[in-house]
């Protein structure tokens, strides 16, 4: 052990996917008994690098050493057998099965293929108790809350007794209290000599928990530094590669009179939103903050009519509107930019034109026949006014960058001439430069008198572009305030109010 | 006010969850009213023995549905293995045997052959699904046709041509159609065979790593893969196990029916899938129980038998069975659909 300064060394890792160089000569060295933060923008290659470590991808070039011994994993099982455990960003759980089945999945205790349930129960109890996680090993996964499931996933990773533990955005759905709990667990593992790789976008967290920080940009290694020497600004500078003095465009919009009023909205199928009331002004950007699972998306979906409400009403210009489905909502002047761009936003196999005109398709139809000239004209308007970088209208949307895809989708909605824009995580998976452009677009739209609601998990973003912020907690409205009166701490406290 | 609403909801939930069973029980009551003779011990044992070969099949199919798959080939595989078994076990005194020079074989040999053939088909299906990533619907559609083609080739050859394979060895028919007499009660051996197979499969599903992996893969294949489960291997084994069960069911079905033709097993695949669906095995994967499958198989057999017994037109029987499947699946989907 003494001659191995590092528990993990990844040297010169390169990985190419068709058309993309995802990793280019990347290195990562983790000392035992430390927390090593891995930082970078979305698409910088952090997850790809971790997938190479975990045997999900096989690197094209480069070497991986664990405690000085060269390894090359062909699948996750080999990685786990060699002391690498990982908490994945997406919760990979079998919801139909119970907690202990999930924790021991792939390595059930027992002889000759027969599972020893009693041993499994005892082992699960021991792990959960040690980590002070209050969950019954026999309860079905589907019955747990998102944050409980997250804690179970962490317990699972810990139970591997790994030398190297990778945590990929583990706090996205945790309350402040739970984050503290997680940090206690991490400290315990650090004391045991475990090397922990911690991926997160939350700067404060990184600076608080980590010993060293490695920053990646565009699939390349940028720098590795002790956390002590870093500040949020320095990290951002490393991540972006330039000084980012202006992360947000100047706010020029001025909220006017109230155009939208939501009263006592309660979802039909609970858990969902409960008794949510608020007002939105013309030209106003209203932010909605909250933890994962706080039902922010459900609020937008309920307003847009693709989720049902049992109580409450929606008033536009003081008149009640019945958004019972998306097409009625569009007619009433609503637009919803969905959270999962790939799943519910773009049609990856179609070109820009087909993607752009879709929400307004009735506007081009005469007796069921589409007016191609008008569609081409409108698509060009989307490309020009949204500044979409593309060779032509016929380009497949999936070949564009995330930022350009998002611009096309926003353009799609503007063609329906909405009054109310509901934007769910509008900058997710978009690089910093393109984010600025999206912010500018949002502010321009507010200037044109649209009412805009922005749901975002990135607090600085909400604080940077919104006039007012509402915080949701467990389906309810936990508080609101003018942006200039709020701090991140206020928002975090409100987000945990009803949990 | 609240209480009334709660009750209304619980009644609605109850009706929704049990609607299918309520309909099926009403149908049985209808049979009994129409012809009280339906409630006889003989009918009871008949239904049970008919249900047992299909039950064994359904137990195989159920595992595949838990894996988010399905199997359209099970009926034809059963048919093919039934034909093989019967051709190897024709009475040695029967003049126009398929294999005139074949000595009298011990029962176990054709049974193992049938199971091995089933296993080969299962392996092809499993390989297609797990390795080639072909949808189970497509790959089993292919093997269904292949199994049928092989059955036809096997039967239809000179000098006998395509005539039924009949006159089976007495020890074979006794082994299958015999029954244990307990006073007035006769329990067909077939019921015991089904019970034994059910116990084994129940054990596999609930007590073994293979079973746990099956539920995990069916529930969330991604999670299983990143947790180190060998997804390809486990899927293959479940498919092979299903094939073995079809082979066993084919071996039993041949003697139960007394003779086999290329039509043996026709549409049994659909009956097996229906049994699973009625028994609560979810097409969305990861959910299902052995008692559920057994109840499904028996209930459907009661309906089939009952419709025949009270003389419902055969065409109408198809329509009724179709409606049962549609009802079962739509109710199943309602249970798991994420409501917004």
Looking at this protein, list some descriptive labels.
heterodimer, A: 499 residues, alpha/beta, Rossmann fold, 2 domains, 6-stranded mixed beta sheet, 17 helices, globular, B: 340 residues, mainly alpha, ABC transporter involved in vitamin B12 uptake, BtuC, two-stranded antiparallel ribbon, 13 helices, 2 strands, 71% helix, 2% strand
Structure description:
The complex is a heterodimer of chains A (499) and B (340). Chain A has 499 residues and is α/β, with parallel strands linked by helices. Chain A has two domains: 8-240, 3-Layer(aba) Sandwich (Rossmann fold); 258-495, P-loop containing nucleotide triphosphate hydrolases (Rossmann fold). Chain A has helices at 46-53, 76-81, 99-103, 117-130, 146-159, 176-191, 203-209, 232-240, 296-304, 326-331, 341-345, 352-357, 372-385, 402-414, 432-447, 459-465, 488-495, and strands at residues 8-17, 20-30, 35-39, 61-66, 69-71, 84-87, 164-168, 195-199, 212-217, 220-226, 258-267, 276-281, 285-290, 309-316, 319-321, 334-337, 365-366, 369-370, 420-424, 451-455, 468-473, 476-482. The model of chain A has no long low-confidence stretch (mean pLDDT 89). With 340 residues, chain B is mainly alpha-helical. Chain B has helices spanning 2-34, 41-66, 74-88, 108-130, 136-155, 170-177, 189-207, 209-219, 221-226, 231-257, 268-278, 290-309, 314-336, and strands at residues 179-182, 185-188. In chain B, a hairpin with a 2-residue loop joins strand 1 (179-182) and strand 2. In chain B, helix 4 runs antiparallel to helix 5. Chains A and B meet through helix 2 of A and helix 8 and helix 9 of B.
Short description:
The complex is a heterodimer of chains A (499) and B (340). Chain A has 499 residues and is an alpha/beta fold. Chain A has helices spanning 46-53, 76-81, 99-103, 117-130, 146-159, 176-191, 203-209, 232-240, 296-304, 326-331, 341-345, 352-357, 372-385, 402-414, 432-447, 459-465, 488-495, and strands at 8-17, 20-30, 35-39, 61-66, 69-71, 84-87, 164-168, 195-199, 212-217, 220-226, 258-267, 276-281, 285-290, 309-316, 319-321, 334-337, 365-366, 369-370, 420-424, 451-455, 468-473, 476-482.
